Structures are given as structure tokens and as C-alpha cells.
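Hi all, posting the design record for the shared folder.

TITLE: backbone redesign
STEP: 1 of 1
STRUCTURE INPUT:
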């Protein structure tokens, strides 16, 4: 019925249009009087239908000819428990400092979410045939946040500052024996004493501005204001910070770098708010005071609506283990004792219960990503541990308790007990306590001593004054075990804390630093893992995970492989919340 009326009045409307020239404006003014009330209503419906149809057609046409792209705007706010101290890539040693530095300072290269090396400040690099020289060509038009041009001189200055012992950079060991030379404003050459396949990873450090830092004497550098109000060339620039009356940082704000030389960034602001505990951070997230944070303790995962947040569980190449110092306690020279310790520890229990952020059991002395799948020789089996100790003449007293042994030529019984030293980090204390119970169950007595990290490094690790050390080995994106296991690294600043020495293993690690063929390298990794497991200088426990929360409406996020927590920001210039439409052609 309605359709027929529409057709009828459409016919009238067409006739009027044909006779348009016959109508004067005066006649048009009285045109509505021609129709009765019902006809006016039907004509109105017709006009509405035409408008809706036309609008729909326009929207479909616009959608077909345009596409959505990230738009500039919006913000992201993250919660931290530790305030920043030195937002400077040559000094940053704690996660908060490294996180913010990653946003402020650019690097020659960076690793994407797949673990592939990508150019940042650099356009490319060329390696000489002998593997001893790396020539890096910089991209054009890069400026510091203060508008000054970034040149090869800034690269040379950054490396030489790190190498200068007066600056006390945490990265100095990585650059020993490397010569850096400016070829021209866009070209830098790095010369190595010996070939090093993984050297490109060194080129992922942040670059600092020469024109600002060259004016600051080394003795003043660590405490200079630029460490809290930095000037970089990265996607975000320092805006402001808020401190309490004691100087503690309460909040920190970064703004979008409009001079950024790559696509993005899109988020207008990045804010950090500092809290006293993880519980306070979680409460702030529920109150919408912050948008995300990490690491999250896995016990709190159920507290969040998965529709409102995105949860990322990121594996990191941090292997935690028990490292034996056989020179500090003769008993540890007995391989049977080290094997019994390995069999007695319930690694799955440690990964599930001891670590707040979650972990994956370590079945290899090398981190995942190194292609090593050497068989796990020491699965949890306390009965096997007891049998090994019995066979080695470590006998349990009739009343139970700590096992004893009578050494040859001595009257006094020797007790099977050790001191385990670790940091005061809660995860490691919980790990130590579970290990203590596991070993007690097989007759091995453990006393635990925990120390602050700085004290542990200076008084325990550097002088190698421990019997058993519970600690972690932090690998980069490239799994280079040299500094952890080569015999040349036994003394500080080397990291071979177990004082391990094996000529065959040394040769493999030396070869790994020269080889480029992936298949050959993977076979070398397999061989090295087998040797380390056989010699058992340490018991490898678990690989740490990093649980990270982000708002569900944040787009452009690709998170996969990370080496340090700050690597989650490697591609932050792609993150966005707003969109705009552009023509498809």
C-alpha cells in the first residue's frame, strides 16, 4: 500500500520537475498547499527515504575509496614500583631507567618482536670479509629533541664516553678492544681485535648528544640533571616530572616527538606513575588511573577482565640457576654430590610457586632461542638423588637428618651441608626456600643468606666468595655464552662465576663468535649444551617470564621476543588508539 503511494507521488514529483521552468518562485512557495495532509506525509517519507539511501550510498562509497590508518592522539599511562634515577643509556642499570631511556633515546639498530635486527638511526651496516670491521651508514635528517642535527660525531662520542673508565658506565665491558672512527657526518667505522658474530647487538645501545654531554666533566656526569631531564632523538621527549618534598619522583611525562624521523609515533603522551607496591598499581588500574603495567604476578591474573585488558606473557632469556664454587667447598668437587643436588630439585615447583611473574623450566644451560634441545639429564627424582649419595658413601644417620661421610685419613665425620647465597629479591628467596626443603628431603643441609643486589655483586659475585650462588644469567637477543662459561672469564669483570674451565667448551664458544652459518652454529650450541650438562658446573632451574598488561583498545601492538623488559617498547612508535581515514589510491 505504502509502496504504491510512494510510486504515485514520485510520478507527480517527476512531472513537477519536468515542468520546473513553468513554475515561478511564487508558485513554488504555495506548492505545499497543493497536497493534503496525507499526501504531505507520504512526500515526507519519500524525502527521508531518499536522504537515508543517499547517505548510505555515500558512506559505502567513502568506505570503499578510503582506508583507516593510525591517527595522532590519545595517551598511555603505565604504573611502576621503582622511580627513575639515571635515564641515560650509558648508566641505566635498573628496569625503570632502561624503560624510559628506550623511549627517549634512539639506537643505530633495534630488534623487532620476532627477534630480527632492524635499522633505526642507521640505514644499514657493512661487515668486512674478515669480520673485524663494521661500517655503519646513518640515515639523513635526524634531529635531537632540541633541534640540533644528529651526526656520526654523536655516535663516536657515545662509545668513547662508555669506554672512558672515569664515567663508570655499566656498558664498558661490552666495548673493550673496539675502536670507533668517524668517516664523515653519515658514516662510522667500528674496528674489532677479533671477529665477533654477535657484535651487531652492541649497536642497539642508545646514543647520547655530544653537544650537551661534552660540556659535563666525568665526575659530575652521574648526578647531572640531564639524567632526569634527558634530551634524546627517540619517539618521545621529556615533558615534565613531579617530585615530592624529599625529591622522590611521583610521576613522569613524555610527549610525542614531532621531529621523529620514522613513521609515528602516534600516541600523543606517555605517562608513568610510581607506586610503593604491586597491590597499589593493581588498585590504580581498577580505578582507571593507569592503563597498564608489568611485570604482573601471575597470582593476580584472575583479577582482570580479559575484555578490558590484553595480557602478554613474554619469555626472556634469563636463566636462573645454582652455580657451584668448587674452590670454596671441596665437597662440591664430587660430581656425585652435584648430580644428587640436580636430581633433588623440583624445577616445576619452582617455576609454578616461587616466581611471581611465571617461569618456564630450564632444560638447557642456554636460553630458548639458541636452538639448543640437548636432553635434560637431571629430571626431578629424589630417590635417584638418595641412591647416588649412598653409593658415594654419604650416609644418612639412623635418626635421619644431614648426611655424613668419613674422609680418608680423618677421624671427624664430614657433614653434607652448604651455604647458599642469593639476592633479597622475593622471588629468589622463595626459590631458595623451596630448594632448601628439596635438599633436606635427601639429606643435604642448606643455610640461606640473602643480600641486597649491590652488596651481592660487590662482596660475593665479583670476588667469587660463595659456595653455592642462586642467581640469573641475562642473555641478549643473540645467545652468546662466552662471558658466562669461557675460562678467560673466570675473573671479574668476566661472568664465569662457577670458575668453569673446559678446553673443548672454550673452543666451541670461540668458534660460535666467528661462525655465520646458522646450521653449523646450531650444532655447536647442541655440543656446548651437552658438555655443560655433563660437567655440571651449575644446575639450571628456569627461564623467567614477563607478564604485561595493556588496555584492550590499544592497537598496533606486536610483542614477542624480548631480552630485557625495556624491549617491549622497541616498536612503541606503532602503538595507537585513534584512527583517521585516507584515500586508498
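Okay, here is what came back for every position:
SEQUENCE:
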Amino acid at each position: 500500500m505504502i509502496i504504491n503511494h510512494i510510486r504515485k507521488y514520485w510520478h507527480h514529483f517527476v512531472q513537477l520537475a519536468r515542468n520546473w521552468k513553468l513554475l515561478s518562485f511564487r508558485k513554488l512557495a504555495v506548492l505545499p498547499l497543493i497536497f493534503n495532509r496525507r499526501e504531505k506525509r507520504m512526500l515526507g517519507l519519500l524525502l527521508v527515504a531518499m536522504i537515508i539511501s543517499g547517505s548510505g550510498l555515500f558512506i559505502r562509497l567513502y568506505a570503499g575509496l578510503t582506508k583507516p590508518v593510525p591517527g595522532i592522539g590519545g595517551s598511555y599511562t603505565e604504573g611502576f614500583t621503582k622511580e627513575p634515577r639515571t635515564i641515560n643509556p650509558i648508566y641505566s642499570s635498573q628496569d625503570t631507567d632502561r624503560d624510559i631511556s628506550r623511549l627517549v633515546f634512539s639506537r643505530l639498530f633495534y630488534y623487532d618482536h620476532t627477534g630480527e635486527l632492524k635499522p633505526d638511526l642507521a640505514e644499514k651496516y657493512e661487515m668486512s670479509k674478515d669480520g673485524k670491521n663494521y661500517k655503519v651508514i646513518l640515515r639523513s635528517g635526524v634531529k635531537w629533541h632540541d633541534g640540533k642535527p644528529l651526526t656520526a660525531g654523536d655516535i663516536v662520542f657515545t662509545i668513547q664516553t662508555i669506554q672512558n673508565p672515569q664515567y663508570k658506565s655499566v656498558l664498558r665491558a661490552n666495548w673493550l678492544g673496539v675502536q670507533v672512527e668517524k668517516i664523515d657526518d653519515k658514516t662510522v667505522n667500528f674496528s674489532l681485535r677479533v671477529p665477533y658474530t654477535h657484535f651487531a647487538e652492541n649497536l642497539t645501545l642508545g646514543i647520547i648528544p655530544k653537544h650537551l654531554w661534552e660540556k659535563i666533566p666525568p665526575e659530575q656526569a652521574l648526578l647531572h640533571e640531564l639524567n632526569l631531564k634527558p634530551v634524546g632523538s627517540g619517539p618521545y621527549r621529556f615533558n615534565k616530572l613531579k617530585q615530592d618534598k624529599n625529591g622522590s619522583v611521583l610521576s613522569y611525562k613524555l610527549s610525542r616527538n614531532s621531529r621523529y624521523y620514522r613513521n609515528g609515533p602516534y600516541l600523543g603522551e606517555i605517562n608513568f606513575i610510581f607506586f610503593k607496591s604491586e597491590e597499589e598499581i593493581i588498585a590504580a588500574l581498577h580505578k582507571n588511573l593507569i592503563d597498564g603495567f608489568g611485570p604482573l604476578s601471575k597470582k593476580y591474573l584472575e583479577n582482570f577482565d580479559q575484555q578490558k585488558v590484553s595480557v602478554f606473557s613474554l619469555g626472556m632469556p634469563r636463566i636462573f640457576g645454582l652455580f657451584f664454587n668448587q674452590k670454596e667447598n671441596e665437597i662440591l668437587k664430587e660430581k656425585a654430590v652435584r648430580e644428587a643436588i640436580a636430581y633433588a630439585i623440583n624445577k616445576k615447583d619452582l617455576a609454578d610457586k616461587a616466581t611471581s611473574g611465571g617461569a618456564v623450566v630450564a632444560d638447557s644451560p642456554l636460553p630458548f632461542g639458541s636452538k639448543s634441545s640437548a636432553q635434560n639429564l637431571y629430571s626431578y627424582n629424589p630417590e635417584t638423588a638418595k641412591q647416588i649419595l649412598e653409593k658415594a658413601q654419604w650416609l644418612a644417620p639412623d635418626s635421619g637428618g644431614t648426611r655424613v661421610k668419613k674422609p680418608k685419613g680423618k677421624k671427624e665425620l664430614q657433614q653434607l651441608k652448604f651455604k647458599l647465597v642469593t639476592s633479597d629479591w622475593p622471588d629468589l628467596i622463595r626459590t631458595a626456600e623451596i630448594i632448601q626443603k628439596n635438599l633436606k628431603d635427601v639429606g643435604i643441609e642448606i643455610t640461606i643468606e640473602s643480600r641486597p643486589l649491590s652488596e651481592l655483586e660487590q662482596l660475593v659475585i665479583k670476588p667469587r666468595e660463595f659456595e653455592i650462588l642462586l642467581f640469573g644469567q641475562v642473555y641478549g637477543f643473540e645467545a652468546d655464552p662466552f662471558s658466562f662459561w669461557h675460562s678467560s672469564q673466570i675473573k671479574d669483570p668476566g661472568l664465569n662465576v662457577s670458575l668453569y674451565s673446559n678446553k673443548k667448551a672454550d673452543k666451541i664458544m670461540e668458534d660460535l663468535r666467528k661462525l655465520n652459518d646458522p646450521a653449523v652454529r646450531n650444532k655447536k650450541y647442541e655440543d656446548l649444551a651437552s658438555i655443560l650438562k655433563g660437567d655440571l658446573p651449575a644446575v639450571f632451574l628456569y627461564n623467567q617470564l614477563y607478564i604485561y598488561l595493556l588496555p584492550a583498545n590499544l592497537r598496533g601492538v606486536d610483542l614477542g621476543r624480548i631480552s630485557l623488559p625495556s624491549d617491549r617498547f622497541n616498536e612503541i612508535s606503532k602503538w595507537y588508539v585513534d584512527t583517521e581515514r585516507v584515500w586508498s589510491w
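COMMENT: The first helix runs from residue 2 to 18.
Let me know if anyone wants the other runs.
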